[in-house]
Every structure is written in C-alpha cells, then in structure tokens.
Amino acid sequence: MRLKIGVGLRVLGLLVALPLALLLGVNAFLNLWLPVLVNMQPERLKMTFDVAWMLTPGVVEVRDLEIRQQSPNDQWLLTVDSASATFDLHDFLEHTVHITGADAHGASFLWRARTDAVPKNPPAAPTAPAEVVVGQADGTATVADGTAPVADAAAVPGTDPVTDPVADPVADPVAVVVLEDWTPPIPGFTNPPDPSPEAIYPAGKPWRIALENVHVDRIREIWLGDYRYSGSATASGALTIEANKWLEVEGVVLRLEGGALTRGTEPLLTALSGQVDVDLAGTNPVTFEGRGLFGAISGKVGLTADVSNLSFLDFYLRSAPWLRLTGGVGTLAVDVSVEAGAFQDGSTVRADVDDIVARFLSYSVVGDGEVRLAVGVADGAPQTAIGVAFSDFAITLDGDADPHVKGKGFRVDATTADVALNRPFTALHVVLELPEAEIPDVGVYNAYMPQGIGLRLLSGTGTVRGHLEVSTPENVCRGELYLHGHAVRATLDELTLSGDVAVHAVVPSGNLETGRYDISGTSLDLGKVRIVSGGSLREGKDDSAGWWAKIALPKGTVAVGAPIFLDGNLDVKFRDTVPFITIFSEKQPLPGWIRGLLGVKPVTGKTRVRLGDTVLRVTGFQLFAGQFEVLLELRRRQEMLGKLYVRYGQLSLGMGIADKSNHIQVFNAKKWYDAEPSPD
Question: Which pTM value belongs to this model?
C-alpha cells in the first residue's frame, strides 16, 4: 500500500514538475536563446528586449522591445515599451515571427531609405565618382561614392529620397555636395552602411514577420524619411513583411490625436487629429523606390490640423518650377480616398489660411485666402485641381519692400489629368487671374525701366488687371494685361513729363523657360501729356500740353535677360510732333518758324524700336501728315545720337542730334540725311 502511495506521489510530482520545467525552459529560451537565434546577422536584423516571459501557453509578455532591420533598400527601427502577443515558438525555426494577436503600449517607428540603394533604372556610370558628404541627424557624417543617386529629402525642400537625387554624378562627376540629412538616426546603422550586410553575408533566407489583430496605443513617434509625426496615436490591423520578398498591409487604422507633423526642421502641421485607413495589396517591396510605396496604397484619410506652411504642396507642383506655394497659417481639412495609389473622385484638401505666399517667377503674391485641392471628373476622365483664392493680396518684386500691386480676389488655378499620390503632376495647366487692382505708386516700376537711357518714373497711381495661362511641361504661355496709369510723372534728363498711360499688353505665345515672348498686338495710349523743359536755354519754348499718342505694336518680341530685350515694329498716331522737337532741341532751341512748321496735326507713321537696359535704338522712323514728312534714326546710350529730316511741301530741314549740341542742316537736307551715317 505504501508502495502504491509512493508511486502515486512520484507521478503527481512529475506531472507538476514537467509543466514547470517546460515553462522554465520556454522562458529560458525566450530570454537566452531566442536573441541568439534571431541576431545571428545583426547587420540585417537585430532584436533586443529587457525581459520576456510566458505564463499562458502561446502568450508572451515583453518589456522594452527593439527590432531593427536593414534591407538593400531601407532601414527601420521599431521600439515598444510593453506588449502581450500570441504566437507559436515553432515558427521561429522557419525564420518566421507569426503573431496572431497583440496588445502593445508605448511605441515608435523610424524608417529611412538607404542612400546607396540601387534604382531600378540606374544612370550611366560616371567617368569619375562624385564625393557626396551627407550630414546625419545625429551629428555624424558619411560619404557616398556618387555612383548612385543620393537622397535626400530634407536637404532640399521639395525633394524626395532616391527618386530625386540632389547630386547628379553623371553631369558633374567630381562635384562635392554637402547636404543636411533630416531622416531619422537609427542606432547601430550608418547610412549608407559600411560595410553593407550584402558584402558580409551570403544571400540567405530572410525573416518573415506576420502580424494579425495587433493593437498599439500610446504611439509617440512615426518618422518616415524626413517626415516626422510626434504626439499621440493608436494603430491596429495586420502587417506581413519579408525583406526583399513580400509586403502586405491589411485593415490598418491609424488614429492621430493632436500631434505635430514636421519635415526636417520645418513645422508643417500641429493639432493633427483624425484617422488614416490603409491597405496595401501583397507585393514585392524591391519594386519600390523612394515614394514608390505610396503608389500601391489604398485607403482613406480624414484629418484636421493647424497648418503653418503650405510648402508640402510643392511636391505636386514640381513640373512648374516657376510656381511655388509657401507660408500659410490657419486650418487644414483633409478628406481623401485613395485606390492603388490614385486619388479618387470626391477627394478634397482645403486650407483656410493667412499669409499665403504664391511665388511666380521673381514675384511674390502675399495675402489671406483659401487653398483647395479637389479630385473630380472632367470630360469622362479624372482630374486634379489645385486652387488658391486670395481674399486680399499684395504683389512685390524680389528685393522690393513696397508692393507693386494691391487688391482683392487674385486667383491661381492649376488642373491636371494626373491623380497619382506618389508622383508630381507631370502636365499642368495653370491660370493666374488678376482682377482689377491698385497700383499705389508707379515709382516702383523703375525696376523695369532701362537704366541707361535717362528715363525715370517719379510718381503716379493706377490700376491693373490681367490673365495668364501656362501649360507644362513645355512652359508655354499666353495672356494679356491691362494697365492704366493716372497723373504719371517722369523725368528724361532735364525734361519733366506727365500724363496718363494706358497699356494693353498681349502675349499670344511665350515660354517661361526661355524667357521669349511674342507681344504682337500690344498697344500703348498716352493722354493729357505735358512736357516741360528745365533747361536754361529753352525758356519754356516748345513745351507741350494736352498732347496724345496712340501706338500699336503689330509685331514684336521680348527676350528676358537679352542685351536687346524688346524688338518691335510700331504703328503710331500723334496729335503733333511738338514733344519730339522739345526733346531734340533741349540743348539747342530751334527757330520759331521751324517750331511752327512741326506743329502740324495729326500725324501717323511707323518705326522699329529696339530696347535694352542701356540702349534705345529707333530705326526707320517715318511720320506723315499730308505734305508733312519726318524721318528719324536715333540711338540713346547715356547720350543721344541721331539724325532727323523734316519736310513740309518744298521746305525741309535736317538735324544732326548729339549730346552736346545739335547740327542744323537747312540746304539739301534730304541729301544730307541720306548721306549721314546712322548712329551705331
């Protein structure tokens, strides 16, 4: 009997001891052998934690978990303060972490592209490697050999990792480019890695991580490239990832609660709240470059935030480098649906902001208003529209403190057939609409006046309105501008000019990239003109009052930055020629009988004008009024040189125009004019 009792006690003790031994063995495996098994290639994958234990079979508790991984394309780090996960330890033998349910608390996720990632379509090999020094966010610096595109993103606003190389080693193989890298530092990994895991280890079976029914709260940080969310967030859903083989996201829901989004050191959004639903069909992550991952995403985004800068829209406007949106302080509302990386019909992004800055070429339009992105259908095809509507605005030229134009209702509208989430718009049609607005002081327009011909604007006010359309990628444009100047005062040497100005500038075609514009059809009307001499020799003679002129430009071009930036043929109609005689006789007054002869009215004619920053050339100038005829060749560069021929019936006069004095030719004036060389 005692033997039977003893055997029973031994069996009972064994039944109790075996589970305890198994539990101790499992926990010993978790804390001692699992890290060894997982971390055999730490340059590729490394997992650390403070302590892990299993009390319920299949349910592991872990504290202070860190997992970092590096593939040929990217590097990432996941940290979790505490988690409870259900999985099968046998899956580790197959290089698989399969979690069928988990609750995690306190987490962060950091991701960055490898700067030495080889693109799918690499550039031709450079003749010599470029040295690219990349400053890391942790204060260190690394050197890339320049044989592959170098990211990054935060180094140049509006650029993107891998897809937008900052240095072009093919075009400039010996360039040294110093960048600031605002992608996240990942302890234990340099970027690019030195040495790379591909150089250390032979190709082997990668770890597969499959997460199902995962819930994570108290997320502190999500840092993707140079975009960083910090604050409070929760996430739930399923994820499967296997380096270089598989990536799948299913039913992930990310809830943001009042966090902040920054790019590099630049704050973009604060008080960011809402929900992001994400799905990603299973695919090979090797096919992704830079933002290529976003091209496979489907989901919905519903967010509100305070915005402090609209520069994030520049990514989509890159095909229009002459247009930039910055500034903007206000509120943002996002309601977007995405299917396979494409914005869906009904998606909207709307911002009500102050201090918007719309930069166009060398101009800045600043004011309050609304920015709106909307996706719809036009002519049966999807279309994305970006609109900026200013409630009030001021337009300034770079370097000027005073505005050139002030008003209300300026608009910038851009449309495109592109609806991709991950790519800039490739073909944009941009319309800039300037309603009638105030010109506070025409004096600011001296910046446009040639600096070497002695003409300077003093004062006056006016109004302006216009319309311009530009299409990319050719950057061709067309438009028109109406400008009215009132009581405009100017000086030309010792002469004072005043009057009203009306300009109708027409651009049938032009190119913003080359700076060449056809301005055929442009017209200029002058009214209430008065020219008063300040010279002591003039004694007020030949001063004009109430003069008018109508000038049409049937053919003309403007070439920005060229030595001669305006070249056009003019058709003219003047009240009389008195102002010209006032100008030409400034140094040497004409006899009274000649002044009276030149007062005939009205006169019509034509000429060719070429204008540069330091020179004005007038050639083929002809005026007619019955028996009246005027011929003129003129060049003004600091001083005025030229020749003038005037005929009325049988009476004629020639004049050699010079800076010091004018030469009067009364006899054989036409013969003299034809023989006199034209000013160079």
Answer: 0.78
**Number of DSSP helices (H) and strands (E) in the chain, helices first:** 6, 34
pLDDT in tens, 265-317: 888 899 999 999 999 887 776 666 556 677 788 999 999 999 988 877 888 88
Q: What is the distance, to the nearest Å, from the Cα of residue 59 to the centroid of all Cα atoms in its chain?
A: 51
Q: With CA atoms as reference, report the closest residue to 112 among 153, 142, 145, 81.
A: 153
Domain edges within the chain: 441-675
**Run of H or E residues at 367:** strand 363-378
Residue 475 half-sphere exposure, CB side, CA atoms within 13 Å?
16
Q: Which residues pair with 608 in a beta bridge?
A: 569, 619
Longest distance between any two alpha carbons in the chain, whole Å: 159
pLDDT tens digit sequence for 326-359: 888 999 999 999 998 899 999 999 999 999 999 9
* Among 649, 534, 549, 647, residue whose Cα is nearest residue 607: 549
How far CA 172 is from CA of 119, 166, 175, in Å, comes to 19, 11, 6
Write phi, then psi, for 584 (nearest 5 degrees).
-70, -25
Distance CA 675, CA 677 (A): 6
From CA 596, how far away is CA 115, in angstroms rounded?
80
| Residue whose C-alpha is closest to residue 355's, from 344, 345, 366, 365 | 366
DSSP label at residue 95: T
Q: Judge residue 104's burial from the number of C-beta atoms within 10 Å of its C-beta, 0-12 exposed, 13-18 middle, 19 or more buried.
A: buried
